[in-house]
Design brief:
With about 100 residues, the protein is mainly alpha-helical. It is built from three helices and no strands.
């Protein structure tokens, strides 16, 4: 059907809400009457929902990975500073004991 081909071309615009009001009314009327186009639109909506869900999960995983990497980096830096500080205290104490006490 010629009308169905036109509707299939316009469905993405209809879904995004960017087609004209006349086109929107025409598509809405056609979807009420045509089962095939209605099913196609339903699949389009479902695919968008799935895509958004997967995208959200991917973003959350990336955020978690970045946070964990940052946390590990801070833990390493803290450990290095701690070892350096304890070393300075220890060796400073030894040097003070050798040079200042006798």
């Amino acid at each position: 059907m010629m009308a169905c081909e036109v509707i299939k071309d316009l469905l993405p615009l209809y879904y995004d809400g960017v087609c004209s009001s006349d086109s929107s009314d025409f598509i809405t009327d056609h979807l009420k009457k045509c089962k095939d186009c209605r099913e196609l639109f339903s699949k389009m909506v479902q695919a968008e929902v799935i895509s958004n869900t997967l995208y959200s999960k991917t973003i959350e995983r990336k955020k978690a990975f970045i946070f964990q990497s940052f946390k590990r980096s801070l833990n390493r830096k803290f450990a290095c500073y701690l070892v350096a500080s304890l070393s300075l205290i220890f060796f400073g104490g030894i040097i003070a004991f050798i040079f200042l006490l006798p």
